[in-house]
Structure formats: C-alpha cells, structure tokens
Amino acid sequence: MMDIGSKYFNYRAKKTNFQQEMIAGITTFLTMAYIMILNPVILSDGGFSFGGVFVATAITSAVACIAMGLFARTWAVGLAPGMGINAFVAYGVCGGMGFSPEEALGAVIISGIVFLIISLTPVRKWLINSIPKSLKLGIGAGIGLFLAIIGFSLMGISADHPVTLVTLGNVKAPMALLGAAAFVTMVVLERRNIKGGIIISIIFWSAVAWVFGLAKFNGVVSAPPPMDLAFKFTLGSALSASMVTVIFVLFFIDLFDSAGTLTSIANVTGKINSKGEVEDIDKALVVDSAASVVGGALGTSTCTTYVESAAGVKAGGRTGMTSIVIGVLFLLTLFFAPLATSLPKEIDAAALIYVAVLFVRNITDISWDQIEEAAPAVLAMIAMPLTYSISHGIAIAFVAYAAIKICSGDAGKVNPAIWVISILSLVSFWVA
C-alpha cells in the first residue's frame, strides 16, 4: 500500500512516499474544508440553492484536485471555488447587477474558457508580468475587506444607518457573541499551529448554539441534495457590456490568484529554476482554468488554486498524490449536507472575517515609499467594501494608476496591458 503511485509520481526523486503524501493531503483538506460551508452560504444570497451549491462545490473540487494530481503531477495543491470570487458573483453579479444565477454561471464558464486559451499561449506570461505588484496586493487586500464587510453584516456586528450608512449592530445578541468567539478561536488555533482551525471552530461553536437552542440541528449524514443548476447555465447575456466586465473581473481574479498561489508554493518546493521561471506552471494553470469551466457547468463559481495548499506542502506533500487525496476527501463531504445546513450563518461569518485577515496581511509588501504605486493600491482596498463591488474597486484602481502615470510624465513606462484594462474600466463606468 505504501507504494501506491510510486512509479507514476516518482516518490524517490521527490524524497517522499505514499504515507507522507496522504498526511499532506489530509492536512491541506482540513485547512480548506471551510469552503464546503461558506460557498453555499455566500452563493445562496445570490439566488443559488444551498444544497445545489454544496454538491457542486464538492464535485468540482474533487474533479479539479484529482485532475491536478494526474495531469500536473508535480504539484501538491488543492483547488476549490475561490473566496472573493464567489462573493463577487453573489453580491455583485446577481445581487447588484441583477443577473440570474444561470447567467452568472455562463460568465464563469466563458471566463474559464478565456483563461484556458490564454494558459496555452505566451499571453499568460505577458499578462502576469504586466500588472504592478502593488496593484495586485491592493486588489487582494480589497477583496479581503469586501469579505470582511459581508462577514460583519452576517454576524450582526454591523447594521444599516440612514445617516452614516453603517453603524454598530446588536453586539449583545447571543449569536453575534458566538460568532465573535468562533473568530477568536480560529486565530488562537492558527497561533498554536493546529490544522483545520476554521472548520473546528465553526463546528464547536455551532454545537454550543445547538445545545442552548439558538440554532437547529438538522443531522449529519444524508443522500446528496439535487444539483438544481447543473448544466442550466445560459450564455445569452455574455455579449452585453456589463457582462463583458463581469467576465473580465472573473478572469482577472482567477489568473492572478492562481499564478500568485502557484508561485508561492513553487518557492517552498524548489520548483523555480535558475532563470526564475516556475516549472510546470503551464499544466497547473490549464487544470485550474478547466476546473472553472467544470464548476460553472455544475452550478458553482470560479474554481481556483488555494493558498492553504502551503499547509500540505509544509507537511511533506511533493507530488500530485497529495492533490488526489484532497479530491477524494472532497467527494466524501457529499454526504454531509445536513451538517452544513445546521451551521448558523453568524458563526460561518467568523470564517469570512478570518479569511479577510489572510487576504489583507500581504499589504506589507506594497511599495509604500513610492506614493504613485501605493495610492492606487489603497484605492482598490477601500473602494471594494465602500462601493460594495469588487469590479468597481478594480476599475477605480486601474484608472487611478493610469491617470497618475500620465500626470507624472511616466506614461511611457506603463505596460500596454494597463492601458487596455484602464480603458475597459472607464467603459464599465460609462455603461454601469
């Protein structure tokens, strides 16, 4: 049993074995299992059915991970519908722009196809290298703050106000207090290097809510719910100006999120060659983009590579067998829908706020001593939560970046991709 996959994955050359890969896979799965709860919670706010998204999330993640393991076999990573992207679909595309879930899924599929095509061409490398680092970091932090404001709202910590727009909610409410306790527990468990802290915290404090009658317990195991949106996507609105903007944002976030995550993993595993290039990244990006097409067809938002994969890598994962183990575990979650529906949204929200922290913490790498680089990044950060739109935040950041470069006399130093994105951003404001 210990030799399973030994020849295909070349354990000896990678200094690993099946047992080590299995431990790594379990470790990574525990760190990203929260998506099985949060993805249905978020997308259901956009008109998706909780049960359908739950099943689509499990199957999409399983297919993506197993495909990554078999095709891009040198990568020990997990894939699932991405945080931030799902919020954009639910609150931006469906809630804000008024598109139906079927139309949103069509956009997910098209963006995945665009990503797949670009992953097979030199354009991918050009695009990745064209976006300034500070903008990438600012956009990532902005997505985190957007998740945070959603989490605060779900937890009841923030509330509407006719004058100040937002104000403090009922922080004395029992469920708000349990949500706050869940967040603190997540941080403490991470501080103590305990894997799976998010899912452990959610289940523990949900159990407290069940015991005191604050939430209803629906059971643990059952047959998977129906996939009511599987293969029901529509492409009819794909050519409208507003939907083109949606497709671009989905593509943009997925491309840079996946490329950034894979590069980070490569730094740990020694997959960066003497030229500074990431080995086998093409195969990994092909799987990542194809997974988004699969996810859209099955009824969930864009699939991406998870930075939590670093936990499995630190545990010794070095090959695609780690990814396969993650995929199998996602398949097993199919039968736990009743448990997922039993978890109170206030406690689930704690995970959103915790993930927001992970998104925001990278702002230390922004070039703060270069105001022309830092200012657009900050605009991206604050515009996303304040306009309640990831796409508007990205657009504002790029337009500001281009305008600053023009007025500073540095227009000649700007990559052509920046001009293209900035023009598209201006068009998106015009047609909004």
Summarize the structure.
The chain is 67% helix and 3% strand.
Walk me through what this model shows.
With 432 residues, the chain is mainly alpha-helical. The chain has one domain (16-355, 368-431). Helix content is 67%, strand content 3%. It has a two-stranded antiparallel ribbon with strand order 1-4. Strand 2 (158-161) and strand 3 form a beta hairpin. The chain is globular, with a radius of gyration of 21 Å. The mean pLDDT is 92.
Index terms:
two-stranded antiparallel ribbon, 432 residues
SSE blueprint and pairings:
Blueprint: H1 6-9, H2 11-14, H3 18-32, H4 35-44, H5 50-71, E1 79-81, H6 85-96, H7 101-119, H8 123-130, H9 133-155, E2 158-161, E3 165-168, H10 174-191, H11 197-211, H12 241-269, H13 281-298, E4 303-305, H14 309-314, H15 320-332, H16 337-341, H17 345-360, H18 371-387, H19 390-407, H20 416-431
Antiparallel strand pairs: 1-4, 2-3
Distance between the termini: 58 Å
What is the succession of H and E elements? HHHHHEHHHHEEHHHHEHHHHHHH
Walk across the major sheet and give the strand order. 1-4
Number of helices, where a helix is a run of at least 4 consecutive DSSP H or I residues: 20
What share of the residues does DSSP label as strand, in percent? under 5%
Total count of domains: 1
What is the rounded Rg?
21 Å
Number of strands: 4
Instruction: Estimate percent helicity.
Output: 55-70%
Which spans of ≥5 residues are poorly predicted at pLDDT below 50?
none
Average pLDDT works out at 92
Largest sheet features: 2 strands, antiparallel
